Structure prediction request, 467 residues.
Amino acid sequence: MDYVLTTILCSPLFYILYIILKFLDKKRHQNCYILDYQLYKPSDDRKLSTEFSGDIIRRNKNLGLNEYKFLLKAIVSSGIGEETYAPKMVFEGREENPTHEDAINEMEEFFEDGIGKLFHRTGIQPDNIDILVVNVSMLTSMPSLSGRIINRYKMREDVKTYNLSGMGCSASLISINLVQSIMKTNKNKLALVVTSECLSPNWYTGNDRSMILSNCLFRSGGCAMVLTNKPSLAYKSMFKLKVMVRTHHGSKDEAYGCCVQTEDTQGRVGFHLGKCLPKTATRAFVENLKEIAPKILPMRELLRFATLSFARKMLQKFLGKSFYPTRPMINFKTGIDHFCLHTGGKAVIDAVAQSLSLSQFDIEPARMTLHRFGNTSASSLWYVLGYMEAKKRLKKGDKLFMISFGAGFKCNSCLWEVVRDLEGEGNVWKDCNIENYPPKTLENPFLAKYGWIQDEDITTFKFPQED
Prediction:
C-alpha cells in the first residue's frame, strides 16, 4: 500500500493534476459577486416639491434676473420630478450657512437606514465583514466616514478599510474594482461597499451659472451593497462581475478642468460644470467603448464591425471625401440585454442612447430614476438597477451593462451577469408604486408652473428685491 501511494505521489501526472486543481480553485475564488444591495430613500418630509423649489430660488438674494431665468429654465428641462430629496438644512432655510454637523448627520441617516436594512435582510452580521469601502466624494471628516461606520456597527479590529473621496459620480464602480482586486488574492471574503454623496456643505448659493446648475440635478441618496468571492455563496448572489474597464483623461487639461470643485469670484464654494463637458464626456465614452467592446461582444458582431469599417475606408478612398454612417456601425445589443446608464441629466441619457442606438425601453430605467430620485451621484446606477429589478426584467443569465462618468475626467463601465431571477423584493421602488411607471404621459410639474419663462420675459415672477 505504501509503495502504491509513493508511486502515485511521485508520478508527474499527479503533480500536473494537482496544479490544474489548484489553478481551478484559485480561479473559482477570484470571481466577484454582489450578494445583495440596499437603496436609501429619505423620509417624505425631504421631498423637493415644485412650489418649494421655486421658494429656494426666490430666497437666494445673490441671483439677478438673468440667473433666475437660467435656473428656472434648467429645472424645467432637467427631467426631474417633484419627489426627489434634498438635505434637511435646505428645508430649514440654512443652505447659505451649513455646518459640519449637518454634513455628518446627512451621512449618518443614510448609514443607519441603508446599511442597517442591508444587514437585516441578508442576515450578515457586521463582524462578518472583511473589507469596507466607502466613497463619498465631497466630504472628508476625522475620523473618516469608514471609521464612523466601524464604530456604529462594531466591526472587527482586522477589517480592511478604504475611504475614497473626490472620485465623482463614477466612484461606485471604482470601489467595486478595488474590491475585485483585493479578492483576486484573498479567498472567502465579504466586502461592504457604501456609496453616496453629501450635499449639505455643497449646496451652492452664489450666482455663477456654471455652478448653480448642480443644484438643479444633484439630490440625496445612497446605496450599500455586500460583495463576496465565496464559492459557497455564489448561488445566493444576484450578480457576477464579468468585465470592468476604467478610462481616465485627467492628463488632458481640458478634461481635468471641466468638472471641478472651486470658488466663485465671491469666494463661495461650488461645483463648476464647464462648457467643454459634453465634448470631454464623449471622448472618454468612445475610448471606454473601444476597450470594452471586444471583451463583451460576440465574435460575429466584431467581424461585422470590422467589415463595415473596411468598407467605409474604401468608400472614403474612392469617393475622396469622408463618409459617415447614419447609424452606429456596432450593435451592442448583440452582447447586452440591459443598459444601466448614469443619470447625469436628461442630455446625458439621450446622448448615450443615441450613441448606442438604444430604444425608449432601454433607457426607461434611467429616465424614470432621474425623474423620481434625480442625480444621486455615484449611487445613481443602483437606483437604475433597482428599477429594472422591481420591474422583474432581470432573468438568470442576462447580461447587464453599466456605464458612469465622473470628475477627473473618468468614464467607467462594467458587465454583470444575472445569477438568478430577481423579483425586486425589499426594493425602494416597491414603495413608489412601480406599477405606475412609466406613466402614460410623463408630466413635468416644473414645466406646468414655470414653463412660460421659456418663451417670455420674466415680468410676473416675484423676486426677493421686490419684497
Summary: Residues 463-467 have pLDDT under 50 and may be disordered. The longest strand covers residues 239-248.
